[in-house]
């Protein structure tokens, strides 16, 4: 079954066409700068050359149309007709408490996604644009919503409730939701498979480390705690996000700098994290280059990041009352060997020793980076959110009669 996976941002649209029988990516790419001057379309068919075209895309419907035309192009396309696309899977960031699993997209599902828009104002409205664009162009093709928050709906109340008046949870559902759920789900399952640990009797900590980062405690295949909260701002120090801070900081800086709450939240979301600490960049590759040139703030930012990750791993080891494996994934987790080494150096109390050679050699591929005598195995498992979306989409669409 060929399934088109769509991941919409406010001005971008990532896509992959996946054959779910072989789990081979037939084509992939991105539509960038949608609704903005200087639009760019990237297309990479299986076994072919990647092409980049400058194309103005006024909205997501135009972008989707361009994607579909590329997939069916007589010369460079990968399918003969749109009828070969049996379903479309959409990544949706926030599903609130309503969605504990992926769902076939209906008017009711769309309504619930709209209701969660104020919890993910940068994401859910963009996802809705993608859904409506696909409905307009392929009205008879079934679609599935795969929620970042769904995997974390197994968290017990003691893990998701905040220390606020309970009425705010009752009235507004203010609680921890967590994100990157599709990634944590895939990586925890793949870790168990890779290490030959029975998933139904496992304690795994997954570390999704990128520009946005989160950690998840997974017990017997289910999320029991995660670092992001009501929004993706809570938790680790990230690329541009502050992560955990004393809430009083907001009022304190607002008073000192004569700023509004909205302005402070913009700083916490877009000007903080390793960007704020280093004063240089949110890209860990830039920080590495600067560190190697002797930039002390760049090194400090990386060390702060690694320290916070190690602290969360320690706390989630307590939440799980032990741990069988720790898995690194996403851009930083899969590639930043220095940061992985720094994190593991804090975990010697768990009986973990870093295999230096394995850590240096394991870049963007699966591998174990702890020594054979370590009591807890540490591994790198590249994430594959698109494959998880395709799998969920296939499962649900196959049930449609």
From TrEMBL:
<keyword id="KW-0460">Magnesium</keyword>
<comment type="similarity">
    <text>Belongs to the acetokinase family.</text>
</comment>
<keyword id="KW-0547">Nucleotide-binding</keyword>
<dbReference type="Pfam" id="PF00871">
    <property type="entry name" value="Acetate_kinase"/>
</dbReference>
<dbReference type="InterPro" id="IPR000890">
    <property type="entry name" value="Aliphatic_acid_kin_short-chain"/>
</dbReference>
<comment type="function">
    <text>Catalyzes the formation of acetyl phosphate from acetate and ATP. Can also catalyze the reverse reaction.</text>
</comment>
<feature type="binding site">
    <location>
        <position position="91"/>
    </location>
    <ligand>
        <name>substrate</name>
    </ligand>
</feature>
<dbReference type="InterPro" id="IPR004372">
    <property type="entry name" value="Ac/propionate_kinase"/>
</dbReference>
<keyword id="KW-0479">Metal-binding</keyword>
<feature type="site" description="Transition state stabilizer">
    <location>
        <position position="180"/>
    </location>
</feature>
<dbReference type="GO" id="GO:0000287">
    <property type="term" value="F:magnesium ion binding"/>
</dbReference>
<dbReference type="InterPro" id="IPR023865">
    <property type="entry name" value="Aliphatic_acid_kinase_CS"/>
</dbReference>
<protein>
    <recommendedName>
        <fullName>Acetate kinase</fullName>
        <ecNumber>2.7.2.1</ecNumber>
    </recommendedName>
</protein>
<keyword id="KW-0808">Transferase</keyword>
<dbReference type="GO" id="GO:0005524">
    <property type="term" value="F:ATP binding"/>
</dbReference>
<feature type="binding site">
    <location>
        <begin position="208"/>
        <end position="212"/>
    </location>
    <ligand>
        <name>ATP</name>
    </ligand>
</feature>
<dbReference type="InterPro" id="IPR043129">
    <property type="entry name" value="ATPase_NBD"/>
</dbReference>
<keyword id="KW-0067">ATP-binding</keyword>
<feature type="binding site">
    <location>
        <begin position="283"/>
        <end position="285"/>
    </location>
    <ligand>
        <name>ATP</name>
    </ligand>
</feature>
<feature type="binding site">
    <location>
        <position position="385"/>
    </location>
    <ligand>
        <name>Mg(2+)</name>
    </ligand>
</feature>
<feature type="binding site">
    <location>
        <position position="14"/>
    </location>
    <ligand>
        <name>ATP</name>
    </ligand>
</feature>
<comment type="subunit">
    <text>Homodimer.</text>
</comment>
<feature type="binding site">
    <location>
        <begin position="331"/>
        <end position="335"/>
    </location>
    <ligand>
        <name>ATP</name>
    </ligand>
</feature>
<feature type="binding site">
    <location>
        <position position="7"/>
    </location>
    <ligand>
        <name>Mg(2+)</name>
    </ligand>
</feature>
<comment type="pathway">
    <text>Metabolic intermediate biosynthesis; acetyl-CoA biosynthesis; acetyl-CoA from acetate: step 1/2.</text>
</comment>
<dbReference type="GO" id="GO:0005737">
    <property type="term" value="C:cytoplasm"/>
</dbReference>
<keyword id="KW-0418">Kinase</keyword>
<feature type="active site" description="Proton donor/acceptor">
    <location>
        <position position="148"/>
    </location>
</feature>
<dbReference type="GO" id="GO:0006085">
    <property type="term" value="P:acetyl-CoA biosynthetic process"/>
</dbReference>
<dbReference type="GO" id="GO:0008776">
    <property type="term" value="F:acetate kinase activity"/>
</dbReference>
<dbReference type="GO" id="GO:0006083">
    <property type="term" value="P:acetate metabolic process"/>
</dbReference>
<keyword id="KW-0963">Cytoplasm</keyword>
<feature type="site" description="Transition state stabilizer">
    <location>
        <position position="241"/>
    </location>
</feature>
């Amino acid at each position: 079954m060929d399934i088109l996976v769509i991941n919409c941002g406010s001005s971008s649209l990532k896509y992959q066409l996946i054959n779910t029988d072989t789990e081979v990516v037939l084509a992939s790419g991105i539509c960038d700068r949608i609704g903005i001057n200087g639009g760019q379309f990237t297309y990479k068919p299986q076994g072919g050359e990647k092409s980049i075209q400058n194309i103005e895309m006024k909205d997501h419907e135009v972008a989707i149309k361009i994607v579909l035309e590329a997939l069916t192009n007589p010369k460079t396309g990968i399918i003969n007709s749109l009828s070969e696309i049996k379903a479309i899977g959409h990544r949706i960031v926030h599903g609130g408490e309503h969605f504990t699993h992926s769902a076939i997209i209906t008017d009711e599902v769309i309504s619930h996604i709209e209701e969660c828009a104020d919890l993910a104002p940068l994401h859910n409205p963009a996802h809705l644009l993608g859904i409506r664009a696909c409905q307009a162009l392929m009205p008879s093709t079934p679609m599935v919503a795969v929620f970042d928050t769904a995997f974390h709906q197994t968290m017990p109340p003691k893990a998701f409730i905040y220390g606020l008046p309970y009425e705010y949870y009752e009235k507004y559902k203010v609680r921890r939701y967590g994100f990157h759920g599709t990634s944590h789900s895939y990586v925890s399952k793949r870790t168990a498979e890779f290490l030959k640990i029975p998933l139904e009797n496992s304690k795994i900590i997954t570390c999704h480390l990128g520009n946005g980062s989160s950690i998840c405690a997974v017990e017997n295949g289910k999320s029991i705690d995660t670092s992001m909260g009501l929004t993706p701002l809570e938790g680790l120090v990230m690329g541009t996000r502050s992560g955990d801070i004393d809430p009083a900081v907001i009022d304190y800086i607002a008073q000192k700098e004569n700023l509004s709450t909205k302005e402070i939240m913009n700083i916490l979301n877009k000007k903080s994290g390793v960007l704020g600490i280093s004063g240089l960049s949110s890209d860990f590759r830039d920080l590495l280059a600067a560190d190697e040139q002797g930039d002390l703030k760049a090194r400090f930012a990386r060390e702060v990041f690694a320290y916070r990750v190690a602290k969360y791993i320690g706390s989630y080891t307590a939440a799980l009352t032990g741990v069988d494996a720790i898995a690194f994934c996403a851009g930083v987790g899969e590639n930043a060997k220095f940061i992985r080494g720094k994190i593991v150096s804090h975990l010697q109390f768990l009986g973990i020793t870093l295999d230096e050679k394995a850590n240096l050699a394991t870049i963007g591929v699966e591998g174990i980076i702890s020594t054979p005598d370590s009591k807890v195995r540490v591994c790198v498992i590249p994430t594959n959110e698109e494959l998880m979306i395709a799998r969920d989409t296939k499962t649900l669409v196959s049930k449609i009669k």
